[in-house]
Design a protein that fits this description.
The chain folds into two domains: 145 residues, no CATH class; 102 residues, Serine Threonine Protein Phosphatase 5, Tetratricopeptide repeat, CATH 1.25.40.10. With 281 residues, it is an alpha+beta fold. The strands form two sheets. The chain has a seven-stranded antiparallel sheet with strand order 1-2-3-6-7-8-9, with no helix packed on it. A two-stranded antiparallel ribbon has the order 4-5. It has seven helices and nine strands.
Length: 281
């Protein structure tokens, strides 16, 4: 009898385990990873949906602290020090809190990044940076709360908060130029062809001293036994930007011939377009 009872209990437990059901979360978690310049930015947050509700001024009250999402605190992590306006945020993780308003939001970066919801006791000493961003009305509705990183450049991006018909963007600056310039200065003490090439292309694309870029590119090519078509392409662009159209055309023709030999249609077209633009015969 005891054996039968034990067997029944074991079967019941087994059926109970098998009957467990996984259901989707109403506010699923999401992770956004973006490289801005040389800085890695990661945002971890939960994404509630409208589901027919009025969001701002109702579900999310105006002028009150909001966790900026659902469930655990929304967390942003920067691999380098960044700037929010004139305020520096050290590399690390921060909770993003907001106080939504009708025309602007207060956006707060809080050093206590882990935990659920808002802190039981707010500590102003843990506010690493705070800024105000204007509300931009969208011509459509965003059903699910979304955080974006857009407006990307080598040195900055915008952290975007979107929900319902509202967009709020917070620009942040990253130390790309400082890091690259420092690396260039260091490497230039003993550079090779690749170093000269990378420095020249960076100076051209960043609007820095184009004559210095030309000098470095000429040095790079002189140290390269057989320059590739993409290297010659960059050299021609530097010549053109420096105002030396004759050298630009001559170099673009070399790049074109090499690109044709390599069967690279993209570079063939780019070189032909530039030669036409520069008035090549």
């Amino acid at each position: 009898m005891k054996k039968i009872t034990l067997l029944v209990v074991m079967i019941a437990v087994s059926l109970g385990v098998q009957a467990q059901i996984n259901t989707p979360q109403p506010s699923p978690s999401s992770t956004l990873i973006q490289k801005v310049g040389l800085t890695d930015v990661t945002v971890e947050y939960s994404r509630p949906s409208m589901r027919g509700r009025t969001i701002f001024g109702d579900l999310v009250p105006y002028d009150k602290l909001w966790r900026t999402g659902a469930n655990a605190r929304t967390k942003v992590t920067f691999s380098d020090n960044v700037m929010i306006g004139s305020q520096e945020l050290k590399a690390g993780s921060y909770a993003i809190y907001t106080k939504p308003g009708t025309t602007s939001w207060e956006v707060i970066f809080y050093t206590e990044a882990d935990g659920g919801g808002t802190p039981a006791k707010w500590d102003d000493s843990k506010v690493a940076a705070k800024t105000t961003a204007p509300v931009q009305k969208l011509p459509f509705k965003v059903e699910t709360f979304t955080i974006s990183i857009d407006g990307l450049s080598d040195n900055a991006a915008t952290l975007g908060l979107l929900w319902s018909d509202v967009y709020v963007g917070v620009k942040f600056d990253v130390p790309t130029d400082k890091a690259v310039t420092s690396a260039i200065d260091k490497v230039m003490k003993g550079p090779d062809a690749n170093d000269y090439y990378a420095a020249a292309v960076y100076y051209m694309n960043s609007g820095k001293d184009i004559n210095k870029a030309k000098e470095w590119m000429d040095k790079a090519m002189s140290l390269t036994e057989k320059p590739a078509f993409w290297q010659l392409r960059q050299q021609s662009l530097i010549y053109a930007k420096a105002g030396d159209k004759k050298q630009a055309i001559e170099t673009a023709k070399k790049s074109l011939a090499a690109a044709e030999a390599a069967g690279n249609a993209d570079y063939v077209k780019m070189n032909k377009d530039s030669l036409k633009e520069w008035g090549a015969k």
